[in-house]
Amino acid sequence: MKADPPAGADQAPDSTRDWIADFEAAARRALPLRFRYAFIHTYKPVMDDATYRSFDTMEEYRRWCQESLPEWLGYGRV
Question: pTM of the prediction?
């Protein structure tokens, strides 16, 4: 079932029309395929390098994050 285009879509910039076309194409895909494309695995240094880690306290975990993980992962303290 195809939805009507949003009001003014024919007057939208090319980038918006492309975005709408991409969205509609994705909506037509089967659900399993949509799930397959929805989750993208990104390697996270240090975090993905061990099978598991365990900590006795939250403080110990936070200290490990601060000392071991790259800042861009966002696990540091503010």
Answer: 0.49
- pLDDT averaged per 10 residues, the chain (length 78): 60 85 92 88 90 95 93 86
Alpha-carbon distance 3 to 21, whole Å?
12
Cα distances (Å, whole numbers) of residue 46 to 7, 21, 55, 60, 72: 48, 39, 16, 16, 12
Residues 45 and 29: their CA atoms lie apart, in Å, by 33
Inter-residue contact 66 to 76 (CB < 8 Å): yes
